[in-house]
Amino acid sequence: MRPPHEPPSYDESDPFDLPTWLGESEVTWEAERDLAVGHRVAGRLTGPGQEPLPCDLLAVDDAYPEPVAANALRVRAHQVWQYGEVLLAHDGDRALLVVPGSRIDTDLALEAVARLARAVGARPDSYGVRLRVRSGGG
Question: 83, 42 in Cβ contact below 8 A?
C-alpha cells in the first residue's frame, strides 16, 4: 500500500527579504505563458537595469487530482488575503505569490501584484502586469 500523497509545503518569505529595487522603481510582473496553464503561472519581476526575479503566482485551492499545497499554507493564504495582503513564499529560487482560488485569471493576477507592491512599500500604480495571449483555440 502506498502512503497518501503529501502535498508541497512552501516556506513563507518576508517581503523585506526581497531586493530593495522592488520598492524603489517601476516594476513589471511578466507571465511566461498564458493564464490558462492552471493553478501555477510562472513569471518574473523586472525593473529597469535590474536582474529579473523569478516570481510565480500559485492558486492554492486546486485539489484534484492532488492538492497543490499543504493545508496550512492554503489556510494562511486565505487569512492574509482577507486582510488585503498576499502571502509570499518561495520554491527554491522562485518567489511565489500564493493566492486563494484554483485558477489564476486576469483580475487575480492584477490584485496579487498590487498587493505585492504594497507589501514592499511601493505604490501599486508603479507596478504593471504583462500577460501572454492564449495560444490556440478555446
Answer: no
